[in-house]
Design brief:
Blueprint lengths: L3 H11 L4 H8 L3 H9 L6 H10 L4 H10 L17 H14 L4 E4 L5 E4 L4 H4 L13 H6 L11 H18 L3 H10 L19 E5 L2 E11 L6 H4 L2 E7 L2 H8 L13
Antiparallel strand pairs: 1-2, 1-5, 3-4, 4-5
Helix pairs in contact: 1-3, 2-3, 2-4
Length: about 260
């Protein structure tokens, strides 16, 4: 088991900070940071969280640091439902409903779909049933030939964009399951040659359904100051039409059964 000093040093290296850089940011001495990292000083829970805050360590990993130092975890991890977190649930549900008639969904840190609005349903209708068994992974759903991949016109660009985003995510907070997903679906290949994303903001996802082309770009929203691991690790992905034809598609009358996908 890693010591708290080893974990702090690993996160400091990941953030490319020297001991002096971290000490200045946390308003402590560089010598104290060195003693903590080498195990010659036992930090308090408050000091661990102070250093972790300056290193922007995810809440899950802060709990791991506290446990390594012999302290109880500070942050809870509750399911995102009406019973466990009613205020958060209602806030997220309002955001999703307000974004209709355009698609929006909530994902966890491994890109599993937690919740969607009704505008996502037509896209899910094109996927194989086994891809829709929870937890539904958005990356696998999008890139699997039995999912949305055959309907994405600019698939190579989308794959390259996902590779960039998840690669950055793993650099910030490594995760074994997400790494496996990256290696399975996003490792560079010959099909990606000549298709680097020019801009994460400008590149749309282009779908073709029944002879109609839909062009969408997305924005990502996260909780600003979460104190719960679940909230710390989720994001809301909202999609917007880039042209009038796409906007018209989403305003056409159609029946959408309500959906909600759990993390389990």
């Amino acid at each position: 088991m890693d010591t708290v000093g080893e974990l702090l040093r690993r996160w400091r290296h990941r953030r490319r900070l020297s001991q002096l850089d971290l000490a200045i940011a946390a308003d402590v001495s560089a010598r104290h940071v060195s003693l903590v990292e080498t195990g010659k000083s036992n930090p308090s829970a408050g000091m661990i969280l102070r250093l972790a805050d300056q290193l922007d360590v995810p809440l899950r990993e802060r709990n791991r640091m506290l446990l390594a130092a012999g302290f109880a975890p500070r942050y809870a991890e509750r399911p995102l439902d009406r019973d466990a977190m009613p205020a958060a649930w209602d806030a997220i549900a309002r955001v999703l409903r307000a974004h209709e008639p355009y698609p929006a969904l909530v994902m966890d840190r491994r890109w599993n779909i937690v919740m969607t609005n009704r505008a996502v349903d037509p896209f899910l209708a094109h996927a194989a049933p086994d891809l829709l068994r929870p937890p539904i992974n958005m990356v696998r759903l999008g890139l699997d030939p039995r999912g949305l991949a055959p309907h994405i016109v600019n698939l190579a660009e989308v794959r390259s964009l996902l590779r960039t985003r998840i690669g950055r995510q793993l650099a910030v907070a490594p995760d074994a399951e997400l790494t496996a997903l990256y290696q399975d679906l996003l490792m560079p290949g010959s099909e990606d040659a000549g298709h680097p994303p020019e801009s994460e903001v400008a590149i749309p996802m282009i779908f073709r359904f029944g002879g109609r082309e839909l062009r969408l770009f997305s924005t990502t929203t996260t909780f600003g100051t979460p104190l719960d691991i679940t909230l710390d690790e989720i994001s809301v992905e909202s999609y917007y039409p880039t042209d009038a034809e796409t906007a018209a598609y989403f305003t056409e009358p159609r029946a959408h059964p309500a959906r909600h996908f759990s993390l389990s």
